Fold this sequence. Notes:
With 91 residues, this protein is an all-beta fold. The protein has a single domain, classed as Immunoglobulin-like (Sandwich).
Amino acid sequence: MGSEDCQTLVAEASDLESGRLRGASLVWEDRYLEGAVERVLPLGSGERIDLCRPPAGAGDTLHTISVKATDRGSLSSSDSVRVLVFRGGLI
């Protein structure tokens, strides 16, 4: 699989007490429907991930890729982006 098959996603988060959040403080996941069933796939942790060939099922599939940032005090916030994957794996 070449790099043209991947998209790099980057997140940056910080707060006043913890400063910049890194590593396990940033957790990524992918949510999408497979038929009528919602699937949730963990994608990893850290400031950046490579999204390579997400599942496309029998047709075009809309994915919601989210990252959740959690500070030392267990306070969290999240953000997401939607990605449409065409059958055959093209993003």
